[in-house]
Design goal:
The protein is an alpha+beta fold. Helix content is about 45%, strand content about 20%. A 5-stranded mixed sheet has the order 1-2-5-4-3, sandwiched between helices. A hairpin with a 3-residue loop joins strand 3 and strand 4. The protein is globular and about 60 Å long.
Length: about 160
């Protein structure tokens, strides 16, 4: 078996099917709608961003973990981001199937929705690396950079 045949076989196993892609797209639209509605209900100025492999379309078949970052304005004090970010994450998660509180640099919400794990992570709405204040803030910049530079090489990432 030559290398091209091996690559083709591996991609058949790792590249999501059209049905799977449709499910993921629908799931992300639903989650974005739920997040935006909850943000509005709570009167917050927060922007939801998808990060991670789903946002970059580099996810593997059968691997649908969602990373939904809840970006607060830069002028938000860190304690307020932690407190209101956790409240917002819980308010969103209460509209999903189940959730628990998890901890990294600051608390976030790990939920389940339609059989998929959804991490709801408060962060700052950074536009530049100089604005990064917490470890998770880099994820928005990383996702943006990858999407701007991937240029159709999604399958190379999957491999």
């Amino acid at each position: 078996m030559d290398i091209e045949a091996v690559i083709s076989e591996v991609l058949q196993r790792t590249r999501p099917s059209e049905e799977e892609r449709a499910f993921v797209e629908e799931l992300m639209k639903e989650l974005e709608g739920i997040a935006n509605k909850t943000i509005e209900e709570l009167g917050l100025e927060v922007k939801p961003y998808f990060v991670g492999s789903l946002a970059k379309d580099t996810y593997l078949a059968g691997d649908h973990d969602v990373d939904l970052f809840l970006a607060f304005p830069l002028e938000t004090p860190l304690e307020e981001l932690r407190k209101k970010g956790l409240e917002l994450g819980k308010a969103i998660a209460e509209k999903l199937d189940s959730y628990e509180i998890a901890y990294a640099e600051h608390p976030y919400v790990r939920a389940k929705y339609r059989g998929v794990r959804v991490d709801l992570v408060p962060c700052y709405d950074v536009k530049d690396w100089k604005d990064v204040r917490t470890a998770v803030d880099r994820s928005i910049l990383h996702t943006r950079w990858v999407n701007e530079n991937l240029r159709g090489r999604n399958d190379e990432v999957r491999l």
